[in-house]
Amino acid sequence: MLALPGAGLLRPAQAAPTAPTAIGQPVPWPMVRLLDGRSVGAEQVQGRAVVVIFFATDCGYCQRTNQRLDKLVRASGGLPLTVIAAALDPDPAEVQAYMARHGYAFPATMDAAVLRPVLTARRSYPVTCVIDRQGVLREVIPGEMAEDDVMGLAKWART
User: Fold this and answer.
1) What is the largest CA-CA distance in the chain?
2) Rounded to an integer, what distance in angstroms lies between the CA atom of residue 116 and that of residue 52?
3) Rounded CA gap, 34 and 21, in Å?
4) Would strands 49-55 and 127-131 be described as parallel, antiparallel, or unpaired?
5) What DSSP state is assigned to residue 21?
6) What pLDDT is stored for residue 15 in this prediction?
7) What's the rounded Cα separation, in Å, for the pair 81 and 71?
8) Per-residue pLDDT at 39
9) Nearest Cα residue to 126 out of 39, 73, 76, 66
10) Contact 106, 69 (CB under 8 A)
11) CB atoms within 10 A of CB 130
């Protein structure tokens, strides 16, 4: 694996944080399990920009933001960018059906309860959290995002 300057800032979580990571601070990335059974730990996101969207399947604002994130993923080509949808719904089958129905090019996890305390204290949705390639939290964006704003998130994969 290629070592990138500053990539060691992203560190595995040792215990549940007492407060979410502050903007500009390294993220203690927890191990999360995706709906397809893969696990994503600090090693898998090291050196990559990471966008996490907290969403609900019955939220129109979330659906529109997810559609825009899908466009970002498809347009990002070889950029070191990972997008993960963190479902707030209780039923994994419903979330899997939602993801399949929309054909999103990014994975989902039911581990929102693991990710949320690390990234944000916000309880509303959608909430989009952005981590740069050095593992530093750069943005926590509440609400629906416009397409230009979503496409602009690619900058974190370029720097």
Assistant:
1) 41
2) 10
3) 22
4) antiparallel
5) P
6) 53
7) 13
8) 97
9) 66
10) yes
11) 21
**DSSP per residue over 17-66, as a string?**
-SSPPPTTSB-EEPPEEBTTS-EE-HHHHTTSEEEEEEE-TT-HHHHHHH
What are φ and ψ of residue 11, in 5° steps?
A: -125, 150
Residue 71 to residue 22: CA distance in whole angstroms: 28
Question: What are the tokens at 6?
Answer: 């500053």
Instruction: Please give the pLDDT value at position 5.
Output: 38
CATH placement of domain 20-32+45-158: 3.40.30.10
Using an 8 Å Cβ cutoff, are 21 and 137 in contact?
yes
Q: Which residue has the tokens 């397409």?
A: 147
Q: What is the pLDDT of residue 11?
A: 46
Averages of pLDDT over runs of 10 residues in the chain (159 residues) are 39 61 97 97 97 98 98 95 98 97 97 97 96 98 97 96
- Assign 124 to helix, strand or coil: coil
What residue has token string 């090291």? 46
CB 115 within 8 A of CB 30: yes
Q: What is the pLDDT of residue 159?
A: 85
Tokens 């999360």 appear where? 32
